[in-house]
Amino acid sequence: MTTGQTPLTMQDAILTLQNYWSANGCMITQPLNTEVGAGTANPSTALRVIGPEPWSVAYVEPSVRPDDSRYGENPNRLQTHTQFQVILKPDPGNPQELYLGSLRALGVDLTAHDIRFVEDNWASPALGAWGLGWEVWLDGMEITQFTYFQQVGGVSLNPVSVEITYGLERILMNLQGVSHFKDIVYAPGITYGEVFGQNEYEMSRYYLDDADVDTNHRLFEAYAAEARRLLDLELPVPAYLYVLKCSHTFNVLDARGAISTTERAKSFSLMRGLTHESAKLWAQRRTDLGHPLGVTPDPAPAVRAALPAMSRPETLLFEIGLEELPYADVVTTTEAVRESITGKLAATRLKHGNITVMATPRRVVVTVEAVQPREADTEKTVRGPKAAAAYKEGAPTQALLGFARSQGVQPEAVRTVQVKGVEYVAVTREEPGRPAPEVLSDLLSEVVSGLRASRNMRWSDPNLSFSRPVRWLLALLGRTPLPVTVSALVSGTTTRVHRTAADPVVQVTTAEGYSHFLRMHGIVLEREVRLDAVVRGAERLAVEAGGRIDAEAQAGLIDEITDILEFPHPVLGSFEERYLDLPASVLTTVMRKHQRYLPVLAADDRLMPYFITFANGACDDDVVRAGNEAVLRARYEDAAFFWRADLKVAPAEFRGRLDQLTFEDRLGTVADRATRIAALALELASAAGLPEDTLATVRRAGELAKFDLASQMVVEFSGLAGVMAEEYARRAGEPEAVARALAEMEMPRAAGGALPTSEAGAILSLADRFDLVTGMFVIGAVPTGSSDPYGVRRAAIGLVNVLRAAPATAGLAVTDGLRAAAARYAAQGIEVPAERLTEAAELIARRYEQQLVDAGHEHRLVQAVRVWADRPAQGDRVLAALERHVDSEEFTALVAALQRVVRILPEEPAKDADRTLLTAPAELALAEATDSVRQTLQGQEDDLTALVQASAPLVTAIDAFFEGVLVMDPDLEVRAARLTLLSDVARLVNDTLQWSAL
């Protein structure tokens, strides 16, 4: 309980929300009379958001999700949970504030709790729908989904609707201070468990254990056929209702594990197509009816006020106010705005001082110091026709008269200028500088309208598009307001601080000291200060708990926390020690991935039963701690549920289920991929000459490859792939070496991640990545620019890292691995064009080259050893030798001599010629020196040091050859013989380095 008032019962909460939203313009309707997975699927949302008619509605929706069945045991997960759905169409401009008002109405003390809007990019494949928005967290627990719909049924939406979907059970658990949904007081004297506990158990039994698969397959087909028939009759509403029946039946089959890869893709395609047709037919029907509810008008464009005068240099302050940005967009938007402002100002003549751009999730702030009152005046010369064409016998021609007229001057005002020796007529006029307010107002408008992110959305303003809505603009020149208009937005002199503040909108009177002004309102503008506050706050609380945080290992998470908060406030929480019986990797993954918690470690790196979370600003620490602890408890109960269920299934059985998982439609199932990896790993292990015991480990690990992808734990936490394979294999009695190899197959997980330490693990890691890279190049899924959805670049980097680091794999060549992988695809009936393998090898070579450059090696030396990209470990050895010898006299002489050889040889290899024509002493000496070096290097042809040590006689012979012999002899046969001799020299060293790079 979080207030001094008696907490609401669940039925009170429903009535309160109905009254609140009714008072805010929503019509209250009833839930749908068929199963839906969310209130979104109700036609009051899914169909009504389509088209131009306004529509604001609120309703309760029992939401049925068979896959969330937990027999009533999990505190938060139910197969049927209660949503309260709100649709605001069009976006009213302040939906977050309206939403927070509803929480106050429910009795949530916003000043005590930590309310957070956390990025959520929502999509429904079956509905062909997507939108951008947030999960709303109440002390770490997701209580609401908040989405700006962009598309439904494949139809783009205009106007955009706001969807607010409350999870009532979770909100009531917090309000009533209970830790399990069964304990929620539903009505006076009766609990949720007493009303629905039996339903939860029996429906879970049905969905997970007893639903008849054949019957539900027949129902799916019948419902789809009926939807198709109703569409043919042009009845979109009943057709769509049968699509919903299809969707629920599919979910039942999915919970029973009865959906194959092919069926999944086919079913989604069928449901998406039927929904799309229903949506289009609905929109057409509403058009035919003349849109009975009216048409939503576009917002009127803002009108810019009169621009102020400016008499002295001033500081510009410009703030772009936003709804919460995704954390990744905070830094990228900062850089983009800095680049835009800097470039646009540079294109003007307005003098100014330093430009500073900083951002938080809710604002991007630009300050420009010492902005001058106006641009400098300048002269502008406009060139006209050539002088020869401008005058005829001294009189102006029509060409001159037309030019003068176009420039608004008399012909007498035209003068001549010379450009590259040619005379032209021209007009030079004074161009006075524009006042700074005019320059800046236009420029800042362009900056806002040009905002873009990796994923963009629309909201109530149809002319703007960005990662999240732009809600306010603040613009000041010193103490003077600067009018800026962008579509329907107009700048003002206020900013918005924490929504929970007594005055969430505050007046700003000056551009000076804005960072300090925000700090006084509990907002830290400087990213580096927020970052430092996160690290120091976490370290302080960890020490209080007797532990520490690993800031280096958690650097990515710390960056994320920094960019989702405006004022990081640390809170220490704990969990029951019994959960430490679960694998530590599971516990920390739940903390990091789902909750953004920092784990606390003991001195020996063991996980302690503590975590550190961060609230956004001041709060009641005890309230926030209790809420987050309850959330983590439920998360761990879920993990324990998966853990217990998975331990009942043997690894081999999981491996057999992989044929139900799609790898890529054109490349087969995950089972197909695992089979290819197993065969490829054995081939690589044999090629590497590994001992029989290692081959046995590779063979057994290959038989189980990827089995954990079918486990419930990895389905829920995909980042634990490999980690859970090791845990489950070990507990199933597999040899330790096999369990470890299964884990190491997934390494490295990132560009600089840990590498396999066992030979079997390294081989399986390579097989995994060779299969991925080859397959993606086969289907044309090649990385382009910043797009690499299948992680091909990451796989290529992993290949290079393993080949460089694992001694057992040093002799394996990239091209051999790609060809072996291609052979496995060919055995599956998938053609692999040779040019695709060449492109894949080049991608890997570029990754190797980039790694060497990033490590600080000299560029020309990197280019010289690029010939070893096919065997990176050998390339490393050659580079090390090259760096030792590159400045020595012997090596310098060798390079100079070989350059003479390379430069004279034709691009086409010389045909073998009559070597008996080589009779001159210099020719014979070079042939003898070449043979001598070849014999010396036998067995160590790739040893650069050996070549340098043996090169002196060869260098002497090359120099003597060029001084004593005319290579390009007029006698073509003699010329050919001499070129053949030089080709022998080049072949002797070509495989060692790319000499031309030196």
Explained architecture:
It contains 34 helices and 29 strands. The protein is an alpha+beta fold and about 1000 residues long. The strands form nine sheets. Strands 1, 2, 3, 4, 5, 6, 7 and 8 form an eight-stranded mixed β-sheet that branches. It has a five-stranded antiparallel β-sheet with strand order 12-13-11-19-20, with helices on one face. Strand 26 (about 600) and strand 27 (about 605-615) form a beta hairpin. Helix 20 (about 690-705) crosses helix 23 and helix 31 (about 920-935) runs parallel beside helix 34. The relative contact order is 0.06. The mean pLDDT is about 90.
Question: What share of residues are in beta strands?
Answer: 15-25%
**Separation of termini?**
75 Å
Number of helices: 34
Structural class call reads alpha+beta
Task: Itemize the secondary structure elements and their pairings.
Layout: H1 10-23, E1 27-28, H2 43-46, E2 55-64, E3 80-89, H3 95-106, E4 115-124, E5 129-138, E6 141-152, E7 155-156, E8 162-167, H4 168-176, E9 185-187, E10 190-191, H5 192-210, H6 213-232, H7 236-255, H8 261-288, E11 314-322, H9 327-346, E12 355-360, E13 363-371, E14 378-386, H10 387-390, E15 391-392, E16 395-396, H11 398-407, E17 415-419, E18 422-431, H12 436-449, E19 470-477, E20 480-481, E21 485-486, E22 489-490, E23 494-496, E24 505-507, H13 514-520, H14 527-544, H15 555-562, E25 568-574, H16 584-595, E26 598-601, E27 607-616, H17 621-647, H18 651-656, E28 662-664, E29 668-669, H19 670-687, H20 692-703, H21 712-716, H22 723-731, H23 736-744, H24 759-778, H25 792-805, H26 814-827, H27 834-854, H28 859-865, H29 872-885, H30 889-904, H31 921-936, H32 944-950, H33 952-964, H34 972-990
Parallel strand pairs: 1-2
Antiparallel strand pairs: 2-3, 3-8, 4-5, 5-6, 6-7, 6-8, 9-10, 11-13, 11-19, 12-13, 14-18, 15-16, 17-18, 19-20, 21-22, 23-24, 25-27, 26-27, 28-29
